[in-house]
Design a protein that fits this description.
The chain is mainly alpha-helical. It has a domain at about 150-310: MetI-like fold (Orthogonal Bundle). It is about 70% helix and about 0% strand. It has 15 helices and one strand; from the N terminus they run αααααααααααααβαα.
Amino acid sequence: MPSIVKNPTPPRPAPLASVGVLGWLRTNLFNGWWNSLLTVLFLALLAWVVPPMLDWLVFSAVFRADGPADCRAADGACWAFLEVKYRLIIFGRYPFDEQWRPLVGMLALIAMALASCDRRNWNIRLLFIWAAGLSVFFILMGGGVFGLTPVRTTLWGGLPLTLMLAFIGIAAAFPISILLALGRRSNLPLIRALCIGYIELIRGVPLITLLFMASFMLPLFMPTGVSIDAVLRAQVAIIIFAAAYLAEVIRGGLQALPKGQYEAADALGLGYWKTQQLIILPQALKIAIPPIVNTFIGLFKDTSLVAIVSLTDLVLATRQALGDPEWRQFFIEAYMFIMFIYWIFCYFMSKYSQYLERVLSTTRRA
């Protein structure tokens, strides 16, 4: 009996309209009359807005100018303003000839932050990294040692001051917030009452109130002849404020854990602090990564409020640069510049939080 040879029919290729670019467009942009209409309207809006915007930003913009008159005669943005005023915007009133020092100090802070993002440094090494980074920053900014000219904190400003307030505020507020969150859930009535009182009191007032109290009210209660540096007072107010908000975020992560986690730790005979360190806090902090980073981003942007108490942060330095009557009309370019700076740091924090969520997720595939 002859053997039967089966020749399977080869698979046919998918329709062109369902694969590649056409398939993506059909699935995501034109998968129904309503989405198709929205897509067409959005494309029409882009065609109406983007060309004139690009013309103003790039094609008709002035990048080099002999003076503000050249910019007034042009139809586009005056980026030459940044060429003239960028040092005042970035470094504030710091002495002009010494501005290499805040530049190097600022780079030290950024390098310190980037090193902190490496999970291999999440150990005792991180303390030494922060000690080295902050030491370099304060030695360069303050001077008075190694032959550096002393510079008062009243002359600190611009982006270095903004980064200092944000980075130190985040680093100091985070461990305090963990203790506050644990204290609010404590079984000891006194500790729980103190933590609840602190959190509710601080969260009930805006940051600007704390800055005003630290800058103007606190010196009235100090003994005669005793004063606290204005930058330090603002830094402490930011830390106090951020710790209260972070505490509630972390408490949400703690409450999301099932009771079985605590019971399993008790069954293993672990004490309170070992339970928190090895079982509870790692899971709670992982759950709370998105709101924690959201609070960090808000804190970074809230540092601009120190301008109200006369600290020359990035925003106030920009206002001072616009104090020149000849360049004052180009305020849009100035604020777009600092907006871009804020966006870079906030975008990095946002993408890093998404990275942490992926690598720490216990449900992702290997």
